[in-house]
Amino acid sequence: MSWIDPDFPKTATPSDRVGRVLGLNPGLMTGPGTNTYLVGERDPILIDTGGGVPGYVANLEAYLRARGWTRPSRIVLTHRHRDHMGGVAQLRERFPGVRVAKMRHRDPALPEPVDDLRDGQAVQGDGVTLIPVYTPGHASDHLCYFLVEEQALFTGDVILAGSTTVIPPADGDLTAYMTSLRRLQQLDVRRIYPAHGPVVEDGPAKIREYIEHRLLRERQILEVVGEGRATIPGIVEKIYAEVSPALHVAAAMSVESHLRALEKAGRVRERLISGAPSRWELV
Ligand SMILES: [Zn+2]
User: Please, are residues 79 and 142 in contact by the beta-carbon 8 Å criterion?
Assistant: First the structure.
């Protein structure tokens, strides 16, 4: 069971205003690789840059040429994870002077200097308007981009196609993630352009599915904790039985994020045990 599809097209043109160029970085966490998007009728805006894989720039340039374009007018990023902004340096080298922006949020050590971009601060392109939507949870600096002309949403890693997203406990926050999903529900979205996997035609159904999936995991976690002597590895083994063991490290991160959120809500507590994983119990 894998969502790494070797036949996933390296480029695609899902609409008149949107082109997709694959980051060529397939893997367990990235599926077929990170999607980067060119948005606009001419002089397109580039959303995300992939992970800095050498072949990506050639892939991007081939697609630009095929569309009669020469370069991206500017670059905006969804968040700081390496598979989204790791390509910034090579793009700056290839397109000197190109402006790069993302939300600056607790970013002391970004590998690249970037302009700040805020929630609601519209980015105008050629025949397109992108509205950044602050959606923390997967990462504390995450922006989705709403394409006004299509009522479409570039979801970055908040919503993927073919897998669910990871909520890393260090910089992620499950409560914030749920709030972000509910905020996206208010947007009247049609299509979703995810950072991994194919276009999602029914955006609202996918957002609902994501909310229900997290609520299901929460119920399952509470159930296992209620049975007693629950550790994170034990919980993962029980409720992620159908998921490839290779993904259990990522699953453990999401389980911990659930437990931290439940702890904050006063529903579970952690028992530290020296030399062994903590035990979790119901309050
Ligand atoms: Zn990410």
Answer: yes
In whole angstroms, give the CA distance from residue 22 to residue 49.
Answer: 9
- How buried is residue 76: exposed, middle or buried, by Cβ count under 10 Å (0-12/13-18/19+)? buried
Ligand 1 geometric centre to CA of 68 (Å): 31
> 40 CA distance to ligand 1 centroid (A)?
24
Q: How is 119-163 classified by DSSP, letter by letter?
A: TT--EE-SS-EEEEEE--SSSTT-EEEEEGGGTEEEEETTS-SSS
Q: How confident is the model over 237-273, as pLDDT tens digits?
A: 999 999 888 889 999 999 999 999 999 999 999 999 9
DSSP state of 230: B
Sign of CA dihedral 192, 239, 234, 266: positive
Q: What is the pLDDT of residues 22-74, one digit of tens each?
A: 999 998 889 999 999 999 998 999 999 999 999 999 999 999 999 999 999 99
Say what the pTM is. Answer: 0.94
Domain segments of the chain: what residues? 11-201, 216-282
Separation of CA 105 and ligand 1 centre (Å): 15
Closest CA to 267 of 139, 174, 203: 174
Taking Cα atoms as reference points, which of 256, 262, 219, 263 lies closest to residue 234?
256
Instruction: Domain 11-201: give its CATH superfamily.
Output: Ribonuclease Z/Hydroxyacylglutathione hydrolase-like (3.60.15.10)
